[in-house]
Structures are given as structure tokens and as C-alpha cells.
Write a structure and sequence with these properties.
The protein has helices spanning about 10-25, 45, 55, 60-65, 145-160, 180-195, 235-245, 300-305, 375-395, 455-475, and strands at about 1-5, 30-35, 35-40, 60, 70-80, 90-95, 105-110, 115, 120, 165-170, 205-210, 225, 230, 245-250, 250-255, 260-265, 270-275, 280, 285, 290, 340-345, 410-415, 425-430, 450-455. It is α/β, with parallel strands linked by helices. Strand 6 (about 90-95) and strand 7 (about 105-110) form a beta hairpin. This is NAD(P)/FAD-dependent oxidoreductase.
Length: about 475
């Protein structure tokens, strides 16, 4: 059997390495990715403030795959032929090489199973002026973006040391962004570095976000039980922002960005702008642009993929009002409803609906977060799909015995609020389940026993430990499979 994995991020790499471990030499595992290096993306925020450099958060994929007997193709998959075509009965993918020696060449490879783990397209173009390449803002979404962000940050720190007063803006660059957590982490790491440099009094920092309230993070917020009292993470987040002297504006859609101005509109219909000297705004995500074709050559991309370019899986995509959303809408096996040998994991799969309630302003602009599914959930999806494919191959059945619904899955997150062995802090959070289940937990939607949040130095130590642990795991070093996702 041949399993083709499209993408080598957290979900794809997890699936590929576990498949090879489970299946051994008798079956082929092939990874196709345009990227030569694996990146532990959660630590890019530290690259963005100079606490780490790119080599600390990356490694070359090819040597790891060679050692693991996984074939690696440096290329971008462009087309999917799940039925084959007129010249081939076997399903295959078509890809364009990104390797220097064969750049631009088009090839195809057949598969028995295919896993779409392509991750997101960073859709900076959705907001005019957004992003580091053609826009006016910096990014920490890739390690190279983060390195550039730090270079610009250091220049501004020197300007502040000379007495300049500067404006910093962090948050989301569009009304439908996800990954607020990454912007949150970067904001507090920059705040920490400015304090270390003795220039925090020269900086005005603003958080601008599409969240309805602070601390939503695309999960509809959450509630915590502390000291016998139940409080929302809105209170938790607001107290942290106030403590650090950071202003915030939520319910905002960034509409365009000029060289020193960020223009926005809000749910309430307010239009305005803020001035900035340094800004890191997360872009919206979309699918990478895969196209799908039937055997006769007819394109049917819109059947296999949602409008945002992400792949449909075993979810309920029926359009529903918020009041009718249900935990059972969420997928559990990530298998395509159209082809049993095709799976979509990580950010590549299309969620059935957001977790936070969809909100629109009077002009019909959606200003509410789309669902997060990075990090721990992505890795768990990769593992479950690897387990199911392995079970099918070994048992010669179509049974999908392993499940991983985000509505039945817990997640742990450590959000850095500053790097330092003795001065660092981080917010340690657990949430269960990720997608609220108001039938099981009528009052809060989640278990208060397993949904927790604290901030402190210990959290920073844990985040640093996780960095080295997951880099070790991803490099497939001895006993790597014993480290949980």
C-alpha cells in the first residue's frame, strides 16, 4: 500500500511518522511538502523578539525522513484526482516541484490512501496593506517572518532609548481571523522585552481583535472555577491587560492598513483608525488552493472542498442558526464523505461552523473568530488518522475504530507572556471539551473540573520544556513515539 501525505506540518508530520512506525517496511509512506524544514510554530513568537533564532525552531525534513524510510518530495500539490483519469485507474495527486534542481516540473504520484495536511494559506491579501511581503505589518506565522519582525523591533527599541514615543498594535487583521492566541503571545512577549530594555514607558500598546470579548480566542470564551467562584476568561484576560497597561478594542474588523494607520470598522458600526509604528496582525486563513478532478477531467473542487478551500470531512455542513449548533456536527474520523481513502486533518479540514457565535455588523461584515485547530488538536488528528489507516490495512476492513472529535477532545495550551528563566511568565490553560457541549454541560458548555487557567513563572518553564520535548519528538529521536501529542 502507498500512503501519500500532503503537507509536513504538525498534523502531516505526526501522521507520516506514526504510519511508518505502525506499518513498517511493507508499505510506502510518501510526504509531499514545498517546505524543506519543519517548524515548531508555537516558538516563532520567541524568534520574533530575539529570544530564539530560526535554527532553534526548525530542522531539515529530508534527513529525518531518510532515516525513517519515508520518501520526501519537495513540491506543492496542485491537483487531486481521487478517481484517477482516462490514463490511470489509480487515484493520484499532481504536484509542482519546488526543489531548486527541478523547480516548476509537473509530476504525478498514485496513492492507495491520501491525507490532506496542507495547512492554511496565510491570506494576507484579504486585507489591503496586511503582512510583511506586500503590506505594512510584520508577522510571526513563519520563522522567517518572525526573524524579520525581530529585526524591526530592535530598531524601534533603539529609537525609544533615544526618547521617541512609539505606538504598537497587535491582534487580528481581518474580521474572520483565527489564532488570536499567537497574537496574544507576541504582544506580551514584546511588552516583556520593552520592559527589559527599559523603554516600556515610551510605548503605547493596543490590542485590536475580532473577538466579541477579550479572551474569546475563537472558542466562544470559557469559564474557570477559582477559589470557589466561577469567572469568565474575559475577566481573566481584562485583568492581565490592565495590569500590563495595555489598551484593547474588540469586535473590530481591520479593513485596510496604510504605512502608519490601521483602519477598522466595528460590530456597532463605528469606523475609525489607529496610528502605529509597529504592528503584528494575524491574517485570515484559507485553503491552499487544491483543485479536484473527476476521472473524465471535470473539475469538482466545490464538491470536495468548502468555499474557503478547506476539505470537507465527516462533519455536518448543514447551515444552522447558532441555537441549533450541536457537538455532533463536528467530525471524528476526518474521512472524506466522498472517498473513503481520503482524509483531511489539521487546518486543512473544513469545520462545520465556528465555535464562537457568528456576528455581523450592519454592512454584513462578519466580525467574529473562526475556529482554532492548531497544535495539540492537529497532532491528535494526525495520530487518529494514522491509527485508522493502519487498522484498515492490517485488518483488511473499512472499520474506523479510532475517533478524535474536537467536541470530545480536551486541549492544553501554554501561552507565553514573556521569556526569561526567572522573569518569564505564561498562561497555562486546559479546556475540555474544545467545542462546547451544552447538552452534557448545560450551564457552561464545558467541564469546570478540566477547564483551568493560571499565570506564572512555572508556566514559562513548562512552555520551554514543551519546546525541547516536541522538537525531540519531531526529529524521531529514540523513544519519540512515547511522547504524547
Amino acid at each position: 500500500m502507498r500512503i501519500v501525505v500532503m503537507g509536513a506540518g504538525i498534523s502531516g508530520h505526526t501522521a507520516a511518522t506514526l504510519l511508518k512506525r505502525y506499518l513498517g517496511k511493507k508499505h510506502e509512506v510518501i510526504v509531499i511538502s514545498p517546505n524543506t524544514h519543519w517548524n515548531w510554530i508555537p516558538s516563532n513568537i520567541w524568534v520574533g523578539v530575539g529570544a530564539m533564532v530560526p535554527k532553534d525552531v526548525t530542522f531539515a525534513l529530508k534527513p529525518i525522513y531518510h532515516k525513517s524510510k519515508i520518501q520526501f518530495i519537495q513540491a506543492k500539490v496542485t491537483n487531486l484526482y481521487p478517481e484517477g483519469d482516462k490514463t490511470s485507474e489509480q487515484a493520484f495527486v499532481e504536484y509542482e516541484s519546488t526543489a531548486p534542481e527541478t523547480k516548476g516540473q509537473i509530476n504525478r504520484i498514485g496513492y492507495d490512501y491520501c491525507i490532506n495536511a496542507t495547512g492554511p494559506k496565510l491570506n494576507f491579501s484579504a486585507t489591503p496593506g496586511l503582512g510583511p511581503e506586500e503590506g505594512n505589518t510584520v508577522s510571526v506565522c513563519t520563522y522567517l517572518h518572525a526573524e524579520e519582525a525581530n529585526e524591526k523591533l530592535q530598531i524601534l527599541i533603539q529609537r525609544m532609548k533615544k526618547g521617541e514615543l512609539l505606538n504598537f498594535v497587535f491582534g487580528t487583521g481581518h474580521g474572520m481571523c483565527t489564532c488570536q492566541g499567537a497574537a496574544f503571545e507576541y504582544l506580551f512577549n514584546v511588552d516583556h522585552e520593552l520592559r527589559k530594555a527599559g523603554v516600556r514607558d515610551k510605548a503605547k500598546i493596543l490590542w485590536i481583535s475580532n473577538e466579541y470579548e477579550l479572551g474569546d480566542f475563537g472558542m466562544g470564551g470559557m469559564h474557570l472555577e477559582q477559589g470557589g467562584y466561577v469567572t469568565s476568561n474575559k475577566i481573566f484576560a481584562e485583568s492581565l491587560f490592565a495590569e500590563r497597561g495595555i489598551q484593547w478594542k474588540t469586535r473590530a474588523h481591520v479593513s485596510k492598513i496604510e504605512k502608519n494607520k490601521i483602519f477598522y470598522t466595528t460590530l456597532e458600526g463605528e469606523d475609525g483608525f489607529v496610528r502605529y509604528d509597529f504592528s503584528m496582525l494575524i491574517p485570515p486563513f484559507s485553503g491552499v488552493g487544491l483543485k479536484a478532478f473527476r476521472k473524465n477531467g471535470e473539475e469538482f473542487t466545490s464538491t470536495l472542498f468548502a468555499a474557503n478551500g478547506m476539505m470537507k470531512v465527516d462533519a455536518n455542513y448543514e447551515s444552522k442558526n447558532y441555537e441549533n449548533w450541536d457537538s455532533t456536527d463536528w467530525p471524528s474520523t476526518y474521512q472524506s464523505p466522498f472517498y473513503s481513502n481520503l482524509f483531511g486533518i489539521g487546518i486543512a479540514f473544513a469545520p462545520p461552523h465556528p465555535i464562537s457565535k457568528v456576528m455581523k455588523n450592519g454592512d454584513g461584515i462578519q466580525i467574529s473568530p473562526t475556529p482554532p485547530r492548531t497544535g495539540m488538536p492537529s497532532a491528535i488528528m494526525g495520530k487518529v488518522v494514522a491509527q485508522n489507516i493502519t487498522h484498515q490495512i492490517k485488518s483488511k476492513t473499512k472499520e474506523l475504530k479510532h475517533k478524535a472529535s474536537m467536541a470530545e477532545m480536551g486541549a492544553a495550551c501554554i501561552a507565553s507572556a514573556g521569556n526569561g528563566i526567572f522573569s518569564g511568565t505564561a498562561v497555562s490553560m486546559t479546556v475540555y471539551p474544545i467545542v462546547p457541549d451544552f447538552k452534557k454541560y448545560p450551564k457552561w458548555g464545558r467541564s469546570l473540573t478540566y477547564t483551568t487557567g493560571e499565570i506564572g513563572l512555572a508556566g514559562h518553564w513548562i512552555k520551554m520544556l514543551l519546546h525541547y520535548m516536541f522538537m525531540y519528538k519531531a526529529k524521531c529521536k529514540p523513544g519519540w513515539w512515547l511522547i504524547p501529542e
